[in-house]
Specification:
- 2 copies of one chain form a homodimer.
- By secondary structure, chain A is of the alpha/beta class.
- The first copy, chain A, has 2 domains: 11-179, 3-Layer(aba) Sandwich (Rossmann fold), CATH 3.40.50; 184-385, Dehydroquinate synthase-like - alpha domain (Dehydroquinate synthase-like, alpha domain, Up-down Bundle), CATH 1.20.1090.10.
- Chain A is built from 15 helices and 9 strands.
- Chain A has helices at residues 40-43, 46-53, 71-84, 95-107, 117-120, 185-203, 211-231, 238-251, 265-277, 281-286, 289-295, 301-310, 319-336, 350-364, 376-385, and strands spanning 4-6, 11-14, 31-35, 58-62, 88-93, 133-137, 149-154, 159-164, 172-175.
- Chains A and B meet through strand 1, strand 2, helix 7 and helix 8 of A and strand 1, strand 2, helix 7 and helix 8 of B.
Amino acid sequence: MNNFNFHNPTRIIFGKGTIAELSKHIPKKAKILLTYGGGSIKSNGVYDQVIKALKKREVLEFGGIEANPDYDTLMKAVKLVRKKKVDFLLAVGGGSVIDGTKFIAIAAPYNGKKPWNLLAKNKARDLKTALPLGTVLTLPATGSEMNNNSVISRRSKEEKFAFASELLYPVFSILDPETTFSLPLKQVRNGLVDAFVHVMEQYVTYPAGAALQDRQAEAILQTLIEISPKAMQIPPNYDARASFMWAATNALNRLIGAGVPTDWATHAIGHELTAFYGLAHAESLAVVMPYLLWYKRDKKAEKLIRYAQHVWKLRVNDPEEMISLVIEKTAAFFLSLGMPTTLTAYGIDPDEAAQRIQERFTARGTVLGEHADILPEDVAAILRMSR
Amino acid sequence: MNNFNFHNPTRIIFGKGTIAELSKHIPKKAKILLTYGGGSIKSNGVYDQVIKALKKREVLEFGGIEANPDYDTLMKAVKLVRKKKVDFLLAVGGGSVIDGTKFIAIAAPYNGKKPWNLLAKNKARDLKTALPLGTVLTLPATGSEMNNNSVISRRSKEEKFAFASELLYPVFSILDPETTFSLPLKQVRNGLVDAFVHVMEQYVTYPAGAALQDRQAEAILQTLIEISPKAMQIPPNYDARASFMWAATNALNRLIGAGVPTDWATHAIGHELTAFYGLAHAESLAVVMPYLLWYKRDKKAEKLIRYAQHVWKLRVNDPEEMISLVIEKTAAFFLSLGMPTTLTAYGIDPDEAAQRIQERFTARGTVLGEHADILPEDVAAILRMSR
């Protein structure tokens, strides 16, 4: 097992009706900025629950944070926060709203001239101050409600950057599974795939003597496979949605990644597909991961076989056959949720995507994977398989 | 799934050589009280590592905290803390030293006349202040290094009480698996059994639609079963000890208990066996749990069958036979580690133990179990089976 430092101070308030507790978790004299997305929280009742819970509190609002939150949008919120001297951020929504609000949290008190450098030059890492934030999660997927990561896009430059800071763990996150009941099933599907791939990136690497972490990763994968059909049911099933929500949070709260090697190549490639072609985050992962596993099947062989045995209960004598089969199983699982697994399904030319992303990674000197052996030409080879 | 509130702010610094980092995790101007047990840390090098890491810091010492830490011993440390105005506690040892230090942390700033009432009248729950504490763990077992629980004995009254407070999560815990290399194998055995039973108390109850928590519990049980033989090997195996250490922490850091019913009857009964007969904590659990599972086999049937299938991979058509078999498997696992599973193995008369504990629980009005249906006479019946 590798050495690690694990610290996750986010308080999780989980369950039916818990939005009503909101006010007591926010400092008494805080001036609050409520951030949200396209307005679905207004039609599904979550906005009303939040406002009711915050009556008598000083609350400003900033709506319109888009999926794959955009730098230019968020800088408007940063101006508002500075002008109105907001001192607590409350993100109500999914991973995009929370990620965007994390950027507001570091950019508002930042004195540098170019807040974009917080991302592009990774200056976020060294920051000493950020506004505190809390969240009310409405879309389980990214785990942002219980981690210190964020991903921000800048459409004007066709760029997308991830950043992290110890300051960005939400103080609290309220997870009420009933807030997911009004989600389009496509977003449930996206969340299931996103959470699944988060686990895979931390699990299918190489053995590191981390017996518990491997089994904890398998626990989440098995849970997602088990509850997916029920999580997609109409009308929504409370326990399945609750397990989905809690599994997605646990998929990326640093616990299963503690002390083990991690990959994240699928994410890095996927981010470029979102930047260039506008694919939803989960969609971008599903068109990359099966081919990446195939391409790196030798280096990942031991963990792929374990994954086949422990998660999918496959019993095949020939290891190569078992590996091929479990990669097919993984793609079939995504397909069973209605999630395409090829670039061509979105009308994207794999050769063009391969060329564009290879060029960008070459220019940036990007090298990916748990062995740092996925070079830009390997990325191109992986993308050309997605057809 | 039940609603829950999960918050575990303890920072874990895990791995080889991490004691060297100690100083940077303690506030700069703190006056530190280093607490420890019978002195094994002086012979195994841990004391020297701690002192080296704290050079130039102001450090007082309080040694001699016994297994099942005693109120009268700890009150001496409380006097020292008050007199010397100590403002940071550093527990170096196993669960007993950490639990004892948690009591010091709440008793030192407590203004009430009878600190015993913090335990006997459960006043610890409502406290508003406690000294901060950090730990260097040397014996994986109780999970005290990453939770807010503590158990204190008072031999002069033959009593033992558990308490908890939100203030008692250690600020940090350093877990270096190499500190376990000098442990007597009996203590490794005790730690494995303790961690195993911690999970069982939160898992073998009744189904509550908590798909992930059930699998997370199974992940820990399977890990303990898998690594136990290697964790008992001579010379010590680093990865097995590391997995043992991390599994024991995860067995009782509130994660697997979030949103599910919990039992804790085995612990409550075991505490009395320690109070009356001086059994080690883990020993007391191993002579109770198999019989408790047998006695409550109807109410726990669904989870016992799941436990048989998922953890032990048993395949038996008759459910009753499967339940009997998995209880035997559990006892056999304890025995395989050299852990007795009967009161008589310790020369304790089961009938006498049953009578004494039934009387005490009757006097206290104690009712146990996830259904609150284990009455004093049931406890007696369970104990009489342990022969």
